[in-house]
Amino acid sequence: MPVDNPFGPDDPLWSEQPHRDRPSTMLAHPDGERIIVALTGPENDPGREVAIVDAETLATERRIEVGPGPMGLALHPDGRFLVVTNRFARYASVVDLDEGRVVAEVDVPYYTEAVAFSPDGRLAVLANRWKDSLLRWEVEVTEGRFEAKVLDPLRTSTDSVGLPVPANPRRVVFTPDGTRLLVTSETEMALTMVDVERWTAVAVYEPNSPVIDAVIADDFIYVLHVGSGSNHPPDDGFDGDHDGAPGDNTANVGFQDVQNEIDVLALSDLERMHRYTSDSICCKDYRDVDPDRPEAGEELAPVDAWPRERAAFMPARSTWTVAGAMPERAVLVRRADGGAALAVVFGGSSEVQTFDIDAASGALTPRETAETGLYATGFGAIDAVATRDGHRLVVLDRLSETLTALDLTGPTSAEAQTGVVGDVSGGEFPATDVELGEAFNTVTAAFTVDGDQTCVTCHREGTPIAKAVSMPLLETPTWGVRLIMSYRQAYDSRPWFVEAGMGEENFFPVINEFARKENFCCEQSDTRVWSLYPSRAECVDDDTLEGCEHVLECLTNPPPECAERAYGVPALTRDQHFRDAARRVLGRDESFGDALFAERVGPDGNIVRRPIRLGFDGITRALGTFLLARPRALPNPNAAFPAANVSRGAAIFASTEAGCNGCHPLPVTSTAFPTAVTDAPGPITFPYLVTPIRDPWGNDVDRVNPAFLGTFPTSRQNEGGLRIGVAQIRGAWDRTRFLHHGAARSLREVLATPGHAALRDGERALNERDGQPNTHGGISHLSVSDFDALVAFLETL
Predict the structure, then answer these.
(1) Residue 77 has pLDDT above 90, yes or no
(2) Within this chain, do residues 34 and 69 fall inside the same structural domain, yes or no?
């Protein structure tokens, strides 16, 4: 059952939202006449239909009812039978396209989200998110009948089933000969190759970045991901990619190290042959690493400075060819001359870019660049199929609820064909203030200075990736890291983040990193410019001082150095930049006013509501309102299918000896305020309950900087370190990293005390601080069976 959201009409930010179908996946029928689209729906209001669309006109011919949350689509090679995996059902639907109806339902575990047929159609492989595994059917189609024998049945909720793969497997792709298959993992950041006959993983490629998609062309695999990081060993720092060498990945470069990359791998063994990147770590943001000016980092404040040596670890400029943001889908297409090409769909910038493929080396050459412009799509482009012999690309726009058809033989400026496939009866997207926030969450790139960053880069479907990264709030960002926050069930878990300081109206540290004030000349924060001029206070006292005309009248008379900067953006203020982007992307620079408004006294003395501007603060508030209104909570399969020992685990959770319920009271499992636990004016916070991260000199690097504390006065820190809020346990079944630094790889590691008998090979005990056990709950006295029961209960929340 969908999870209810307590956000409702009693909240002043609430407003009625239009129904949306939220299509998520599509495929093209080999007859060239039909496209099939899964109308998945949002998590708390799942759809139950697939749409059959005319491939030429993009008109929906009919809808076929399937199960709740249709997501995975695969067409049997005979072209008649379609398998639909339903995210929230314990069955997959088999649709007879000739009859236009479901003719069979095949048992699968909840959260079976993808399916693919072998080339001969005799085997179907399905990816399951709950069990993090691949499942198999033996398939036979005879005399118009589809029969599937389940080779990997799930018998109880605690059973392992199928072939284990890295967490949250998403896409399954067979090699052309059917002997191997590829499976992507966004959360666990891996591409796995499986030998089908031996039914075993034979190779894994780990780019240290969410693997979004993979497509095979001849002897090569093209892998989409969002950036491995610069991996610059000259800097000390946290070992972000676990290679044993310090000073790599985002622990050193922060949000600037978010990239959009295409890796070219050898099909034979997954060896990387080429990498192409957006690499906007150069040279748009004022902090960016510029290989042409390696001394530039020394001109910055210590928190932003970088050493000259870092420039040597930048990728070659010839590989900076990826022009869009947030790659979602790769599709093989054809050039006008018949040659092979790759089309990449970018959801974060609503664009498509194509690349010519060199068949001999697998190398890619971009056909469009940022300077020439890319093909435009609708909001939230997420999938695509090629039609007309590969010369036309039909893109699925998840947020717009539309299909966009692009003629790849024509110019990018040509008007695209569009058709509605979802529900726009409540107005074209975005139609409300909540939907403005939803648009920014996905189509973030235009609002950023680098132009290649998005919120969903790290928060995939509201779920955090299994990667600890540096955050700008840290006192020592070289060594300190934070696990990325989950977006799910945000309404009753405020204040957010481990520091318990952030709410729906204040995302300053996050959005600030997308567009720091130093990039906007008239914010007067760029010391490279404004150190040459008197301060504003000095000019107010004496406006005859040289340069004060620029200081006091910057918007109409900016300093000449503004135009000479090689970095930054044309807008002179950050608010103007956001409003310009809002007009360009959203078609408006004010809210709708249904949730976000300012009240004024009108001429007649009555209160009048007026929309707010979509500047920096307005966009921040829109994003916060979206997080409240869209819970994105996934129904828990363990709760629907509980293990026998769950009731025992619940009793242990509630016991005073374990102490779990004291800090994680049910049902919210967090002491966000206000709650039934406390009516205190601020959140309940604690010193770190587990050993903090320390640098080689013994310093606590989990501490936050003074600027963060000034921005979020409810956050507290003293000589003993940062005080932290209570994270919610709800949804833990779908996570693969835990604790503020992501060091725990399971709930078992969170709970276990050193030496506990329940520890398994390779597991670490993190329920201790500096050698003192039970600092995160009284667990050491539990027997192995009681420990397992507590874990089983937590996985039902």
Answers:
(1) yes
(2) yes
